[in-house]
Amino acid sequence: MQPCYEHIERQRQAYLEELQDLCRIPSVSTDPAHRADMQSAAEWVAERLRRLGAQVQSLNVEGSHPYVSAELGSGERTLLIYDHYDVQPASLSDGWTSEPFEPQVRDGYLYARGVADNKGNLMFRLQAIEAYLQTFGDLPLRVRFFIEGEEEIGSPHLPAFVREYPERVRADGCIWESGRRSDEGIPILELGLRGILYVELRLRAKSRVLHSSWANIVQSPALDLERRLHQAFLSLIDAEGRPFFLRDLVSQPSLADLALLPRIPFDPHVASQEYGLPLLPGLDGVEALRRLFFEPSCTLCGLRVGYTGPGVKTIIPNDASAKIDMRLPPGISPQIALVRMQQHLKQHGFDDIEVQPLVGMHAARTAPDAAIVRAAQKAVQAVYNQAPIIYPLMPASGPMYDLCQAQGTPAVCLGATHPGSSAHGIDENIAIEDYFAMTRTFCHLLREFAQT
To answer: Do the domains 195-250+295-361 and 2-193+363-451 match in fold?
Structure first.
């Protein structure tokens, strides 16, 4: 693959500038004010794929942001590449060192919103394919791209796209949008991800909203509403934050899964320093990983009483809400988790609280001996001269079940981020050397997957 490496090195600056160009587009899917930017990002990606020689279509379903679907190459094997061009909101006032949509290179790192999640991974994959084509003339397999603009808002239209265009996502294996290396610099392969149920608890007092000038002679329900929602949340979890109402549904991990855990470098003390939060007491590395991958969580993400929008609104409020995130291991569907939560709240006297589901996704798993996993292992070994670390799951969530597992497509995460990449946070970044090492790795993966 040396000629491929040499092409990548010659194009190093051009490839880096190209990534920066894409990161300048503020493709924030959560904000309707950025709808034109979403369109611009989709068009930018589609045009880049056309320059690669792919057959490209931009498609919409049910008012979605554009999906970019593309295909090139031929062969017995088909590789699906899933990425997204949308990003989380960001502004300088959040605490960024530089403008989040004006990419900057500092000390070997590229800083920009979306560079880690997910534009960096998207671009090194396209550039690796270009390098392979420029070096060898043809791809040894068919490559299909499925690039969406709604991953950061829960991919609400993705199941409809798969139903309407199933032929565009059929494949023998998939490289998923995310992926990172360890603190020691070793690439991590994640063989699936957890599911999610995200809900809003809503509570309204019997009184109506009242002008706040009456506050010194009436009893405001605000504190009672907040207290009741807080009590409802505390009823859901045990002392270690695990949901009571799902305990009997948790399956024991297989012996093969448990055998992976001691091989994963995880120091609770180091992790606590990295996260800026203490870990639960009494957890060694293996037990922490077992809970992380194979047990559900239940997190209070936000609590609101009355008006919290911009400016001034002088009221005595009559409503409150809480947003709750549950991560679900394989075997617990978001539908079952929702029903169990509703039943639990009713049985514990909180039947006046409405539970509104906002996002639901199934967990997904890939077998460690799948061809795409073996190809990824060989590609990492070829570039890094060491075997990758294998995670049975990614602790986060995404639409892998609908796009891959439900179609019979094994998927694996292999990407260019690192533990300090700060995806969704301030000063999001990637290490430039990681980026180009993964570009070389992906060149190997194309050949390995075609032959494995």
So the answer is: no
Of 164, 89, 129, 173, residue with least CA distance to 400 = 173
Amino acid at 246: L
- Beta-carbon contacts of 36 under 8 Å, excluding residues fewer than 6 positions away, are none
Count Cβ neighbours within 10 Å for each residue of 432-451 and write b for 16 or more, e otherwise: bebbbbbbbbbbbbbbbbbe
Q: What is the mean pLDDT of residues 141-169?
A: 96
Q: What is the mean pLDDT of residues 158-163?
A: 96
Handedness of CA 364, 369, 370, 376 (dihedral sign): positive
Q: End-to-end alpha-carbon separation of the chain, Å?
A: 17
The residue ranges of every structural domain in the chain are 2-193+363-451, 195-250+295-361
User: Reduced to 3 states, what is the DSSP secondary structure of residue 28?
Assistant: strand
Encoding tokens for residue 170? 């059929």
- How far apart are the C-alpha atoms of 156 and 133, rounded to whole Å? 35
DSSP bridge partners of 201: 322, 355
d(CA 117, CA 177): 8
Torsion over CA: 110, 113, 116, 122 (sign): negative
Task: Compute the average pLDDT of residues 82-96.
Answer: 97
Q: What is the mean pLDDT of the chain?
A: 95
The rounded distance, in Å, linking the Cα atoms of 363 and 398 is 8
DSSP state of 311: S
Question: Rounded CA gap, 175 and 360, in Å?
Answer: 22
| Tokens matching residue 259 | 């055998």
Residues 365-374 have pLDDT tens digits of 999 999 999 9
Decide: 394 and 366 in contact? Cβ < 8 Å.
no
Q: How far is CA 129 from CA 79, 141, 172, 190, 440, in A?
A: 12, 11, 18, 22, 10
CA dihedral 239, 243, 248, 253 (to 10 degrees): -90
Q: How much of the chain exceeds pLDDT 90, in percent?
A: 90
Architecture of domain 2-193+363-451: 3-Layer(aba) Sandwich (3.40)
| CATH number given to 195-250+295-361 | 3.30.70.360
User: Amino acid identity, residue 113?
Assistant: R
Do the beta carbons of residue 67 and residue 146 sit within 8 Å? yes
Sign of the four-CA dihedral 60, 61, 62, 65 = negative
Place of tokens 């199933």: 166
Cβ neighbours of residue 393 closer than 8 Å, sequence gap 6 or more: 190, 191, 192, 193, 194, 293, 294, 329, 330, 363, 365
Answer yes or no: are the C-beta atoms of 130 and 442 closer than 8 Å: no
| DSSP H or E stretch at residue 57 | strand 55-59
- Residues 54, 48: Cα–Cα separation, whole Å: 9
